[in-house]
Write a structure and sequence with these properties.
Aspartate Aminotransferase, domain 1, globular, alpha/beta, 2 domains, 409 residues, Aspartate Aminotransferase, domain 2
Length: 409
């Protein structure tokens, strides 16, 4: 008799694009699926008592975001056995990435938040060693204000105030322009909230150029679409931060700072491995740098349109699996920003379920196997497949349907 885990596994294998068995609604399965593996790998997570999660939520840092493809893992492994000059590698990798995405300069950072801190520090200090040593406690002789729209003030702005600057919060274009003075160091924007603010990208950049103030865009979760990798620097933003470990599928602890050559150089000046800089603790090792370069290279080479279409098909298939559940409304959507990917929105009709979306989400995470879904709320949750291993799609369908049926009134 098949165990529950094997039964779930048998129904989990969906191909990336198609390949369904005729008349069954189920995908093709490998004939030897029940065979035991001849080589047993060490179960590190098991030894630590940490449960793996099937990710139907998305590229969330709390769930380790994305899985590195084989090419990226190969780069990580192959660079681990040699010593190199860290500064030399930083410069060489930055040059390669800048060429790939078509901007003046680039650097690999310890995540997008690190890019934000180092970019801010660079704007304050330039290449002045005395100023760099004094951040964040003594900003004498430096511009020390960063202007941000109120709708863009989120938890991540802490990465900017780490440098000791004052956030000047505005709500309109008139307030923004009025706030610019001799202390203004930078204009900060976050792509995820672009549509929420009174001043949107193009005008924001225009104002920065008009007043000679560097503009920064936090586009950490701004990919997809893929063109956002070069869109914002070409639009005129002086500095752009992007997460390396989300859609690009580089190391999760890595990020990218893209932009003007002098400003990226100033950010590097404030970063590791120099000991007396605010960025000393933001180390990026050689393996992560090279892996990040290869991740960008791969990301630009893959058939992204085909991959995107496969996500749409997977979402449509999931929608069909849940169609028979009374009191459940399903809608396939593509959010405007961030993470513009095919998404299945599940909404509970009033009185149809005995549990909230939060409670169903918890049951999914506590169950076997553990499944994570996106944006749980009182009346439902979302499902995405862009970070899901394709062979796990059937398992997601079974587990979500199982918990929803348990929650039926």
């Amino acid at each position: 008799m098949l165990s529950r885990r094997k039964l779930l596994k048998r129904f989990s294998g969906l191909p990336l694009v198609g390949g369904f068995v005729a008349g069954s609604g189920l995908p093709n399965q490998a004939a030897a699926e029940d065979e035991e593996e001849t080589k047993v790998a060490r179960d590190y997570f098991g030894e630590l008592g940490v449960r793996p999660i099937i990710n139907a939520a998305g590229a969330y840092t709390t769930m380790t975001a994305s899985l590195m493809p084989e090419e990226v893992l190969d780069a990580h492994r192959q660079t681990a056995g040699e010593y190199v000059s860290l500064n030399g590698l930083h410069d060489a990798v930055g040059k390669k990435i800048a060429e790939l995405v078509g901007c003046e300069a680039a650097m690999v950072t310890a995540g997008a938040a690190s890019a934000m801190t180092l970019a801010t520090a660079g704007v304050l200090t330039g290449l002045d060693e005395d100023k760099a040593k004094r951040i964040p406690v003594d900003l004498r002789g430096m511009r020390n204000e960063v202007i941000v729209q109120k709708s863009h003030v989120v938890g991540y702005t802490h990465a900017i105030i780490n440098c000791g600057v004052k956030l000047v919060v505005v709500e309109s274009e008139r307030e923004l322009i009025k706030a610019i003075n001799r202390k203004t160091a930078m204009l900060y924007s976050t792509d995820a909230h672009n549509l929420d603010g009174a001043v949107q990208h193009e005008r924001f950049v225009e104002i920065g150029k008009e007043y000679g103030i560097p503009t920064f865009n936090d586009a950490a979760a701004g990919i997809p679409p893929r063109e956002n990798l070069w869109k914002f620097t070409k639009m005129g933003y002086d500095l752009v931060a992007i997460s390396g470990g989300k859609a690009i599928r580089g190391p999760q602890s890595a990020g990218l700072l893209l932009g003007k050559k002098d400003l990226v150089a100033a950010a590097r000046f404030n970063g590791p491995p120099t000991s007396d800089r605010i960025g000393r603790g933001m180390k990026v090792n050689k393996e992560e740098m090279v892996a990040m370069w290869i991740a960008v290279e791969r990301f630009l080479e893959i058939d992204y349109e085909k991959e995107y279409e496969s996500w749409k098909m997977q979402i449509d298939w999931l929608k069909d699996q849940f169609a028979s559940i009374d009191g459940l409304n399903t809608e396939s959507v593509i959010p405007q920003s961030p993470n513009t990917v095919p998404t299945l929105v599940l909404t509970f009709e009033k009185g149809a379920f005995s549990k909230s979306g939060f409670e169903v989400n918890k049951a999914l995470l506590d169950g076997d196997p553990a499944v994570a879904v996106a944006r749980p709320r009182e009346d439902g949750f979302n499902v995405t497949t862009w970070m899901l291993q394709p062979e796990r799609l059937g398992t997601v369908a079974l587990r979500v349907k199982e918990e929803l049926l348990k929650a039926k009134v």
